[in-house]
Design a protein that fits this description.
Helix content is 32%, strand content 23%. With 421 residues, it is α+β, with helices and mostly antiparallel strands. The strands form 4 sheets. Strands 1-6-7-11-10 form a 5-stranded mixed sheet. Strands 4-3-2-12 form a 4-stranded mixed sheet. The relative contact order is 0.17.
C-alpha cells in the first residue's frame, strides 16, 4: 500500500444478528404503541437468548399491551426475520416470551409534558460526499452486503444460509481523504449442515460454499455500488492463510474465516437492544454520544436529536457548503432548547463558509426543541422497526424523513447571502 494512503474499516450486522433481533422487537413494540396512540411514551428493552425473549421497560400509552398482544408482536417480528426452525434453538412459534413492561416514571413525565427533552445527553450527526447517500463508504457498503444477504436468503437463492450474519468493509483512502479502492471484505454467515465438509476429524464450511457467496453476494453488491473501486481481483482468503502470502494487489475476501458458523442467532449469542450503536450510525467515522435508538419514542432525544443532527449534516453537505459535516446537539432532561450546537467540517467548507457561520444557519433554519424535531421530521408514526436493520441512516426510504435534503437550497442561498438569511 502507498505510504500516503490509509485504511478505514466499518462493520454491519444482518437483521438476524441477535442484537438486531432485540432491536427489531423493541421497535415493533414502539410501532404498535404509536399506531394506536401517537403520543405514547416508550422505552422498551429486549433480551433474546436460547428459546427466550424477555421484554422490560417503561411505557405509558393507551395502546393495548396485554400479554396476548405483546406475545403476538414479538412472535411476528421473529418470524419476519426468519427464525422459524425450532431445531436451531430459537424460533417464532416455540420460544418463550416474558414481558416486564410498566409505566414511565412520573418524574420524567413532568419535564416531557411541557415540551422538555426526555433525557440528557449529546447526539451527533454526520454526512460526507463519498456516496450518493452522503454516508461514509465503508459503512454504506457493509450495510448493502448484509441487505443482499437477507434478500438472497428470503428469495431462496442462498438456501444454506441462516439469518445471522456480519459484514465488514475496509476501504483504502488517498491522503486527501478520497476513496482509492476497496481493500478487504469480511462476510460471516450462519449456515446449515448441507455445506459442511469433513477435514480430518472436524467439520468445516466448504470452499464451494465460499465461492457461491463470493459470486452471488459479494461481487454483485460491490459491482452495483462502486465498480470504479474494484481495483484488483476479488480473492477468497482461506482460513489459516498468512498475511504475507496474500497478493497486495488483490481485494481480500474473508468468508466465514473461523471455518464454521453452524451455531448462531440468539442460541449462539445473547442479543440485547442498543448494543450495535456504531453499526446503527456511521461505522465509527463520526462521533457517537453513546445513546441507543431502538425501543425509544421521539421524546427521547437520544433518538430524535440524532435523527435531526443527521438531517442537518446531510443538508449542509447536499448544499455543497462542506464536503463533510459533523453536528453535535446536547440537551438537559426536561429542558426544551439545546444546550449547544457544534459543527466540525474538517476544513472542507466552501469558500466564504465557516463552521461558526454554519452554526448560525442551523439556528435560523432548523427547529431544535424536541417538539420542533418531532414536527419537522414527523416522528410520531409507526416507522421504526425498519430502522432497526441495515442502519438508521443512508437509505432513501419514504418514511426516513431525516434523509431528505429539502433544506439544502435554502441553506445554500443563505450561506452566500448572509444578510438575507
Amino acid at each position: 500500500m502507498n505510504a500516503e494512503r490509509y485504511l478505514f474499516t466499518s462493520e454491519s450486522v444482518s437483521m438476524g444478528h441477535p442484537d438486531k433481533v432485540a432491536d427489531q422487537i423493541s421497535d415493533a413494540i414502539l410501532d404498535h404503541c404509536l399506531r394506536e396512540d401517537p403520543k405514547s411514551r416508550v422505552a422498551c428493552e429486549t433480551l433474546v437468548t436460547t428459546d427466550l425473549a424477555v421484554l422490560a421497560g417503561e411505557i405509558t400509552t393507551n395502546a393495548r399491551l396485554d400479554r396476548a398482544t405483546v406475545d403476538t408482536i414479538v412472535r411476528e417480528a421473529i418470524r419476519e426475520i426468519g427464525y422459524v426452525d425450532p431445531n436451531i434453538g430459537f424460533a417464532a412459534d416455540t420460544c418463550q416470551v416474558v414481558s416486564h413492561l410498566h409505566a414511565q416514571s412520573c418524574d420524567i413525565a413532568m419535564g416531557v409534558d411541557v415540551g422538555g427533552a426526555g433525557d440528557q445527553g449529546m447526539m451527533f450527526g454526520f454526512a460526507c460526499d463519498e456516496t450518493k447517500s452522503l454516508m461514509p463508504l465503508p459503512i454504506h457498503l457493509a450495510h448493502r452486503l448484509v441487505e443482499r444477504h437477507a434478500e438472497l436468503r428470503q428469495k431462496g437463492e442462498l438456501k444454506f444460509v441462516r439469518p445471522d450474519a456480519k459484514s465488514q468493509v475496509t476501504v483504502e483512502y488517498n491522503a486527501d481523504g478520497t476513496p482509492h479502492r476497496i481493500h478487504t471484505i469480511v462476510l460471516s454467515t450462519q449456515h446449515d449442515e448441507s455445506v459442511m465438509v469433513k477435514k480430518g476429524d472436524k467439520q468445516y464450511f466448504s470452499d464451494d460454499a465460499r465461492k457461491v457467496i463470493l459470486d452471488k453476494l459479494i461481487t454483485p453488491t460491490l459491482k452495483a455500488e462502486r465498480p470504479d473501486l474494484l481495483k484488483g481481483d476479488l480473492v477468497i482468503v482461506m482460513p489459516g492463510t498468512k498475511a504475507e502470502d496474500i497478493d497486495d494487489d488483490c481485494i481480500r475476501c474473508h468468508i466465514n474465516p473461523t471455518g464454521c458458523f453452524l451455531v448462531g442467532g440468539p442460541h449462539g449469542d445473547t442479543g440485547l437492544t442498543g448494543r450495535k450503536i456504531i453499526v446503527d450510525t456511521y461505522g465509527g467515522r463520526g462521533r457517537h454520544g453513546g445513546g441507543a435508538f431502538s425501543g425509544k419514542d421521539p421524546t427521547k432525544v437520544d433518538r430524535s436529536a440524532a435523527y435531526m443532527a443527521r438531517y442537518i449534516a446531510k443538508n449542509i453537505v447536499a448544499a455543497q457548503l462542506a464536503a463533510q459535516c459533523e453536528v453535535q446537539l446536547s440537551y438537559a432532561i426536561g429542558y426544551p432548547d439545546p444546550l449547544n450546537i457544534w459543527v466540525n467540517t474538517n476544513n472542507t467548507t466552501a469558500n466564504g463558509v465557516t463552521d461558526e457561520g454554519l452554526v448560525d444557519l442551523i439556528r435560523k433554519h432548523f427547529k431544535l426543541t424536541p417538539a420542533g424535531i418531532i414536527e419537522t421530521l414527523n416522528l410520531r408514526r409507526p416507522i421504526y422497526k425498519e430502522t432497526a436493520r441495515n442502519g438508521h441512516f443512508g437509505r432513501e426510504l419514504p418514511n426516513f424523513s431525516w434523509e431528505k435534503t429539502d433544506k439544502a437550497e435554502a441553506l445554500r442561498r443563505a450561506a452566500h447571502a448572509p444578510a438575507l438569511a
